[in-house]
Amino acid sequence: MSIAQQPFNHDIRNRCSHFKSFENSFKTPPRDNTHVADTYNPHYMHMKMDVYSDRVDIAGDISTYAKVTSAQLDTIYLELNQAFSLDSIKLNDVLTTSYTFENSEIFIVLDTPLNQGDDFKINVCYHGAVDGMNLPRYGIYHWYKGIYKSHIAFSMSQPFGARHWFPIRQSLQYKIDSVYQEYTCPTGNMVGSNGVLEHITTNNDSTTTFHWKTRYPMAYYLIAFAVANYMEYNLYAKPTQLQGDSILIQNFIYNDPKCLNFYKDDIDISVDVMELYCEKFGLYPFYKEKYGACLTATYGGMEHQTMSNQPDFSFYLVQHEMAHQWFGNNITCATWSDIWLNEGLATYADFIAKKFLIGDDEAMEDIKGDQNSAMDAINGSVYIPEDEVYYGNKERIFSGVLTYDKGTCLIHQLRYLINNDDTFFGFLQHYTDTFRGQTITTDQFRDALEDYTGLDLHSYFEQWCYGQGYPTYSVACEQGEGGHAHFTITQTTCNTATPFFDLPLEIKVLYANEQGDSTFRMPITANTSYFDIQLPYQVDSVLIDPNHWIINKVGEVSVGIDELQNDLDLVVGPNPAQDYLQVHFKKTNTPMTIDIFDISGQLVQSHCLYQSGQHIDISQLPNAYYLIKATQGQATVSKKIMKI
Prior knowledge:
By secondary structure, this protein is an alpha+beta fold.
């Protein structure tokens, strides 16, 4: 592709009415300012590129067809890495020099402004090389897989990296209705991309052109390619919705028998995952085209629409990137502040895949790991504040602890709150169908879930999504005569920004002498809640959140017989105490052992009392809650005290 380079028009500052606002916006710390230019929506792109598997050089001829959405449009804004050589720009097929290309931004000034509803075509030709290895997972990468003697080059764009390989307005406010991509590479290589491989052209110059087209709406960052010495290994899934018809699962792997032998069993699992997800989430959104994966060398996977990039076919990557086709690609976060909707739902799909395809134990280990990880984040919310979303803050946007782990726990907790799996999975199918091909905000997701379930979820989202931290629960159980039990549940939080979480809490009561157990779901409406329950047997122990539904830590758990109605007539006071405790009990010939435990269960003091009314010195103990365990013969009674 040989294109003559055109000179820049450096007088744009005087001709462009919008340039000053753009110029001022970039004087502040770099942020996603593309919303300033949301004055047109691209609806079709035709991309022609020369690509190579052994280097990152490209030559591009990119045509964008768009419609004006503002009252008037006098300037067209695009982004393209400054390292590229810009060869030409055409507006409606007419060459123009009324543009500048500075600081990786292109401003094209129109001689005559366009009006709302007008269509236009912008064509940009360029060439050069931007090595993604020098960027934070952006642009085009080159890799060599020595074991298969294969070079590979591939693109990565999320969230702000598309400009490092093609000109684009990087905004989530629109989706491109359809994209036609033509990739020309040296003969012997293959190119994988979005949509359907409509045909392959063998050229006369030892090159081959692969023609890919997708007709589903797509966010800009999901456009992608991968080129290597590939071979195809294809499978077909048959979800029940298609009544015997099938979905193509098209995989591009290195053209070496060792590669297929190594990955075949792992790739084959994708059929089971696809059919499961269609059952749980609704029919695969892009079933008229395909799903597949290109074997690349990324440090993780990337869910490009209809064809992911993956460094391997591990169970995690197969099911996670496939889940993104529903959650992230079909329905896309409306802003990067809402990215948890993409990653939280796709990560929860990991749990669903393990639960139904491997087993409950493996799935539960995953969710417990996510909960433990989420508690590493005392500060920070799942929803990303707008001032934390900018080009240099990718690590915050894709925080493993907040966006992924805590995000998926929020979905798990919503399933718990809904308390009906038919309703939960029914909503997911309703969601993927109702918002098909659209973008969505966190508030829209909340409102849709409220409408479907009838629940009021405003406080839940304020506390768990927009709020920070997590709760710690403590439970004290005092059991009296006739099985009557009094429960005191206290909650503290690790971040003052969110002083209270009002999720109901499951308490599991285990009865003495192996007489079974009972589980109760307690409504939590204050930091201290009280409940009276009639129980059939004496309580042996109590478990907090036994089924691991909630992100939480366990504080103090104490179980005892009510001090006025127990075999020992045990009374311990004062409570709270400062320097000493006085212990009263029945006068018998049997001494009483008093063990004092801290909230971690560590024994801190032990005493043997021979008469009622003796004092125990606790002046050296730190101020905290403690559990007093009194044992006399075969009888044991526990009491909670507070040292102040």
